[in-house]
Amino acid sequence: MENDEILKASLLNKKKSYEKSNFDVLGICCTKEVFLIEGILKPLEGVQDVSVIVPSKTVVVVHDPLLISASQIAASLNQVKLEASIRAYGEEKILNTWPKPYIIAFGLLLVVSLFKNFYPPLGWFALGAVIIGFPPIFLKSITSIRRLSLDMNILMAIAVIGAVALGDYSEAGTIVFLFTTAEWLETLARHKAASGMTSLMSMTPQKAVLAETREVVDAEKVSIDSLIAVLAGEIVPIDGVVVDGRSEVDERTLTGESFPVPKQPGSQVWAGTQNIDGYLCVRTTAMAENLAVTRMVRLVEEAQSSRSHTQRLIDTCVKYYTPVVVVLAAGVAILPLIMKMHNPKQGFLLALVLIVSACPCALVLSTPIAYFCALLKAAQLGLLVKGGDVLEALSQVKVAAFDKTGTITRGEFTIREFHVFNSDISLETLLYWVSSIESKSSHPMASALVEYARSNSVEQNTHDVKEFIIFPGEGVFGQIDGHDIFIGNRRIVVRASSQAVPSIAKMEGVTVGYVVYRGELIGAFTLSDSCRTGTEEAISELKSLVIKSVMLTGDSTSAANFAQNQLKKALEEIHAELLPADKVHVINDLKSRVGPTMMIGDGMNDAHALATADVGISMGVSGFAVATETSHVTLMSNDLQKIPEAVVLARRTHQIILVNIILSIVTKSAVFCLAFAGYPLLWAAVLADVGTCLLVILHSMMLLREEEVIVKKIGCCGSKKSMNNGGCLSGSNGSEKSCSKPNCCDLEAQVKQCHSTLESNSSSCCGTKEEVGNDERACLKTSHAKAATKTISCQSGCCISPTKKKVVEKEGSSAQKGCCTDGVESTERGGCCGKSYKEEVARKENCCGGCETLMEVPEIITE
Question: Which residues cross the membrane (predicted)?
Answer without folding.
Answer: 97-115, 121-139, 320-339, 351-376, 657-677, 683-704
